[in-house]
C-alpha cells in the first residue's frame, strides 16, 4: 500500500512515577498508522494501550520521542494549538459512552458543532442527522440515552465523534461494554468509516473476536510492539 501515514510515533517513551517507583509504560515504541484502515491495538491489561492512544492523540506528552499527526509534530504545538488540532482533526470514542442523559440522541450529536466555526442551525441538524443515519440510528434521533440500548448508546457516541468528519478517529475499548453482536456492529461501523471516508481509525480492544474485522492488528506487551499483522496475513496464518 502506498498511502502516506497520517499518524507516526517515533521512539515513544513514557513513564509514570508513584512514590519512589518509576514505571516505564511505553518503552521506545515506533509505529506508523495509515488512513483508510481500521488498526486495532491489542495486548494484556496494563501493557500501555490506552497510554499509547493518549500520546498519539496529543492528550498526553511523551517523555521522549515524537508524534507526527497529519504532518504536524505535536510536541512543537502550544497548548492552544494542540486543543485546536484535537478539535479540528480528532474524534474520540470511549467505552463509557459519556452521553448527556437529559439530551436526545440528536442533541448529543449536535454538541461538538458548537465548538469551532459557527454553522447554521439547519446545516448542523442535517449533519448530525446524517451522522446518526450512518450508524443506523436514523429512526432513533429523538430518544434519550435511557431509552436506548447499550449498543445504540455506543453508536450515538460514534455519531458524535464523527459529526465533524475527523481525519483521525480514536476508539478506546469501544466495544467492551457490549455483547458480541453489538460489538460486531460497532466494529463494522468503524471499518466502514475507514474504508468509505478514508479516515484513520485507531482502536484499542481486549476482545480477540474483533481482530478478524480489523485491517491491521498491533500487539503490545510491556510497552513494546511484539507483533504487527495485516488482516490478509492473519487469514493466511489461520
Ligand atoms: N496517569 C497515570 N499515572 C500513573 N500510572 C499510570 C497512569 N496511566 C497509566 N498508568 C499505568 O500505566 C500502565 C499502563 O496503563 P494503560 O492504561 O496504558 O494500560 P492498558 O493497556 O490500556 O490496560 P487496560 O487493558 O487495562 O485498559 C498501568 O500499569 C497503569 O497503572
Ligand atoms: Mg486501557
Automatic annotation (TrEMBL):
CDD domains: ABC_MJ0796_LolCDE_FtsE. One of its GO terms (cellular component) is plasma membrane. Signal peptide: none annotated. Gene3D superfamilies: P-loop containing nucleotide triphosphate hydrolases (3.40.50.300). It holds the Pfam family ABC_tran. Keywords: Antibiotic resistance, ATP-binding, Cell membrane, Membrane, Nucleotide-binding, Transmembrane, Transmembrane helix, Transport. GO terms for biological process: response to antibiotic. One of its GO terms (molecular function) is ATP hydrolysis activity. Residues 7-238 form the ABC transporter domain. SUPFAM superfamilies: P-loop containing nucleoside triphosphate hydrolases. PROSITE patterns: ABC_TRANSPORTER_1, ABC_TRANSPORTER_2. It comes from the Bacteria. Belongs to the ABC transporter superfamily. Macrolide exporter (TC 3.A.1.122) family. This is Putative ABC transport system ATP-binding protein. It comes from Chitinivorax tropicus.
Amino acid at each position: 500500500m502506498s498511502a502516506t501515514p497520517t499518524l507516526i510515533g517515533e521512539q515513544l517513551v513514557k513513564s509514570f512515577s508513584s512514590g519512589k517507583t518509576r514505571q516505564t509504560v511505553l518503552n521506545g515504541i515506533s509505529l506508523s498508522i495509515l488512513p483508510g484502515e481500521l488498526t486495532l491495538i491489542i495486548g494484556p491489561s496494563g501493557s500501555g494501550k490506552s497510554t499509547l492512544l493518549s500520546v498519539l492523540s496529543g492528550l498526553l506528552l511523551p517523555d521522549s520521542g515524537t508524534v507526527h499527526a497529519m504532518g504536524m509534530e505535536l510536541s512543537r504545538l502550544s497548548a492552544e494549538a494542540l486543543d485546536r488540532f484535537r478539535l479540528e482533526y480528532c474524534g474520540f470514542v470511549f467505552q463509557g459512552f459519556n452521553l448527556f442523559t437529559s439530551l436526545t440522541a440528536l442533541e448529543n450529536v449536535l454538541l461538538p458543532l458548537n465548538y469551532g466555526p459557527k454553522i447554521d442551525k439547519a446545516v448542523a441538524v442535517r449533519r448530525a442527522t446524517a451522522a446518526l443515519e450512518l450508524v443506523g440510528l436514523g429512526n432513533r434521533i429523538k430518544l434519550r440515552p435511557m431509552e436506548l440500548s447499550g449498543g445504540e448508546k455506543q453508536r450515538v457516541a460514534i455519531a458524535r465523534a464523527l459529526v465533524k468528519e475527523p481525519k483521525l478517529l480514536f476508539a478506546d475499548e469501544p466495544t467492551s461494554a457490549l455483547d458480541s453482536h453489538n460489538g460486531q456492529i460497532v466494529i463494522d461501523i468503524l471499518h466502514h468509516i475507514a474504508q468509505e471516508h478514508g479516515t484513520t481509525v485507531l482502536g484499542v480492544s481486549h476482545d480477540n473476536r474483533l481482530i478478524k474485522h480489523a485491517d491491521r492488528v498491533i500487539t503490545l506487551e510491556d510497552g513494546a510492539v511484539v507483533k504487527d499483522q495485516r488482516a490478509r496475513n492473519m487469514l493466511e496464518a489461520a
